[in-house]
Amino acid sequence: MDFAESSEAYFVTSRAEEFQDAIRDPLAGYGLRILGDEYHEPEIPNLAFFGDRWPRITYRVNDLTVTVQMLVNKGVVIQQFSVNNTSSESKDLDIVLDVDFRIQELDYMRSREPYAKTPLKGPYGYGAVVVGTPEIEAENLGSKDSNITHVKDQERIGAVLGVFKDGDSLILPTPDNNHLPVLTQFPLKCTETLQLTAAYRLQDIDFSHSWRDFLLPSTDVDVNELTKDIYECPPEWPVLENGVPMKWHLRRNLEHILS
């Protein structure tokens, strides 16, 4: 999964420049975000690494403190999105899961066109499935109550998506204009914290799979449970002769962590 407007891996230089621009754009890329112009100009964010491994981004915007924790577990890329209302008034927040991404091969040796992208509802409305394939021919799969569709006579790569609140998977409509409305509004009282989790897993899309293979178990995306035994403040790393802590060299590139 890649930025929707990014160059393919074959164009190394332009791709790197586009990534540099994208990280400064609060509306770029996949993930949960708050709608509204007043929330699109945050203060300078703070980047830390939980357990010296998993990226954690914290920023303030319009009397809100937002913490985004990234994590990978069992092949599932997880984004925990926490919003704390630090104002003295209640707020109603419109939050969407932006699925403005493309599925493409990271082929550095030759030029490859990105896959065509077709969004579909998940089984019984829970989550969603984005199928990447040159040509889509969809038909119903599984029981009559299942909303999963599949690519007929082909096996293609797809992204299984899920959004969770308080450990429960949310029923989502079919993606429209690259947005998945999580709920119209989330009321947030003063000093209250809202916590949502978005997750995706890349996998083969095969019509012979059970509909259960197109769902993400809540136990696999529970960030609080997954991180309870990880030290948040690790011991100090040795400092090299140039004055740079060794951890600066050992932390993995964010793109590699999430790819």
Brief synopsis:
The chain is mainly beta. 9% of the residues lie in helices and 39% in strands. Strand 9 (116-121) and strand 10 form a beta hairpin.
Instruction: Flag low-confidence runs.
Output: 135-147, 149-153
Percentage of residues in helical conformation: under 10%
The mean pLDDT is 78
What fraction of the residues are assigned to beta strands by DSSP? 35-45%
Radius of gyration: 19 Å
The biggest beta sheet reads:
9 strands, antiparallel
Total beta-strand segments = 16
General shape:
globular
Number of helices: 4
Measured between the Cα atoms of the first and last residue, the distance is 7 Å
Write the H/E string, N to C.
EHEEEEEEEEEEEEEEEHHH
Structural class: mainly beta
What's the structural blueprint in terms of helices and strands?
Elements: E1 2-3, H1 12-22, E2 31-34, E3 46-50, E4 54-61, E5 64-73, E6 76-85, E7 91-98, E8 101-102, E9 116-121, E10 128-133, E11 138-140, E12 149-151, E13 156-165, E14 168-169, E15 179-188, E16 193-205, H2 223-226, H3 247-250, H4 254-258
Antiparallel strand pairs: 1-8, 2-7, 3-4, 4-5, 5-6, 6-16, 7-15, 9-10, 10-13, 11-12, 13-14, 13-16
